[in-house]
Amino acid sequence: MAATAHDTASFITLDEQWGAHNYHPLPVVISEAEGAWVTDVDGNRYLDFLSGYSALNFGHRHPALLDAARSQLDRLTLTSRAFHNDQFGAFCRDLAALTGTEMVLTMNTGAEAVESAIKVARKWAYEVKGVEFDRAEIIVAAGNFHGRTTTIVSFSDDPVAHDNYGPFTPGFITVPYGDLDAVRAAITPNTAAVLMEPIQGEAGVIVPPAGFFAGVRALCDENDVLLVADEIQSGLARTGKLFALDHENVRADLYTLGKALGGGIIPVSAVVGRADVLGVLKPGQHGSTFGGYPVACAVGRAVVELLEGGEFQERSRDLGEHLHGRLNELVGKGLVAVRGRGLWAGVDIDPAAKTGREVSMALRDRGVLCKETHERTLRIAPPLVITREEIDGAVDSLTEALHA
After folding, report:
1. What is the bridge-based pairing of β-strands 103-107 and 137-141?
2. Which of 20, 155, 311, 393 is most buried, with most CB under 10 Å away?
3. pLDDT digits (tens, 9 = 90+) for 103-149
4. Strand locations in 197-240 (E)
5. Strands 45-48, 37-40: parallel, antiparallel or unpaired by DSSP?
6. Long-range pairs for 1-9 at CB < 8 Å and ≥24 separation?
7. What dihedral angle (degrees, nearest 10) is formed by the CA atoms of 89, 92, 94, 98?
8. 230 carries an active-site annotation
9. Which of 49, 230, 253, 290 does the annotation list as catalytic?
10. How far apart, in whole angstroms, are the C-alpha atoms of residue 198 and residue 248?
11. Measured between alpha carbons, how far is 287 from 268 in angstroms, rounded to an integer?
């Protein structure tokens, strides 16, 4: 095998030559990381202001999570669900206790969790609610992002995610996000579930109107419909509470979890919720070779332990208030809008200034890593271990980047 050069350009050339071109990353090649900071192959250090789209809520290489992974790797890695292992049940118990739910379905990726929730909701509709076979409908929101599988992109209205992947899976009804009257009008006797993000991430960290999800919850209760909350990006302390839906004092029937559930170490996802809903699955009807495997469960248990004390929720709430205060100072000075909750923000760049890509590159040059979405929006989601001083430094860099 040919020797590989160790500079940024050489690594990027390898990526471009041998990897499918399904991403457009910033030209940074990261080789080391710890806490809220990463270092590239040329020795440059950057503040991570994206956290792997919320997969790194606890920062890079959190010691407790690494210890859990190493300890489990030394004992047992995989059994498959053909056999029991000594981590699975404890993980399900701990996650259910943390989330106030009754049953846990373990998977690997966020998209798998959403696919699983869709299957469960449809099965529940036929076997419990009594919907006519093959007639079940799921109400979803415009601007949604739930993953990249064929079924999930079937109800995406983002042409980049959707176009040229058909024929598409039927059974989804799209309504405007935050429009309670539209949800009410879309419900029929065939409605199995309403599936939505409590805050839309990919769309630009869109927060719905106050009371929207309380209204959706009431409509679901009135019509025997499941509320499924996709908390894969918004959950696990990102917004200042365990779930973003908690800000509305609303409970879902099912939650999909992922990203931070694996601590930025391995993919771990789950559907958690009511036992009478998840209980429609019987042996052999759904599964995953790696879903609930011992290493995933060990790391997941360590993540649950980090969240049990509420420290990360409090950090996100307090530091998020500071972050949003600083970002709002830039409205009219290169930004036109700031949205979000906790340590999660979407900022819209003034069209007269720069594109999101240009601002991301200017931030990189100033030692901060962030990424654009939808051309003129930056998604900001630093690790929850970030400090107030580091936030100030990053926002100062954003101020410079907007006018560079």
Report:
1. unpaired
2. 155
3. 999 999 999 999 999 999 999 999 999 999 999 999 999 999 999 99
4. 226-230
5. antiparallel
6. 6/41, 7/41, 7/42, 8/40, 8/41, 8/42
7. -170
8. yes
9. 230
10. 9
11. 14
Q: How far apart are CA 243 and CA 283, in angstroms?
A: 30
- Determine which one of 11, 49, 145, 312 is catalytic: 145
Look at phi and psi of residue 346 and say left if phi exceeds 0, alpha if psi is from -120 to 50, else beta.
Answer: beta
Phi, psi of 314 (to 5 degrees): -65, -40
Identify the pLDDT of residue 6: 80
What secondary structure letter does DSSP report for 246?
G
Q: Confidence band (pLDDT; 50, 70, 90) for 2?
A: low
Known catalytic membership, residue 168: no
C-alpha–C-alpha distance, residues 309 and 291, integer Å:
27
281-325: pLDDT as tens digits? 999 999 999 999 999 999 999 999 999 999 999 999 999 999 999
Rounded to whole angstroms, the maximal C-alpha distance in the chain is 65
The amino acid that residue 93 corresponds to is R
User: Which residue among 123, 241, 259, 371 is the active-site one?
Assistant: 259
pTM, rounded to two decimals:
0.97
Residue reference for tokens 């107030």:
388
Tracing tokens 């910033």 back to the chain, one arrives at 26
DSSP type of residue 260: G
The reply to whether 133 belongs to the active site is no
Residue type, 382: P
Domains along the sequence of the chain with CATH? 8-61+311-403 (3.90.1150.10), 76-308 (3.40.640.10)
268 in Cβ contact with 108 (< 8 Å):
yes
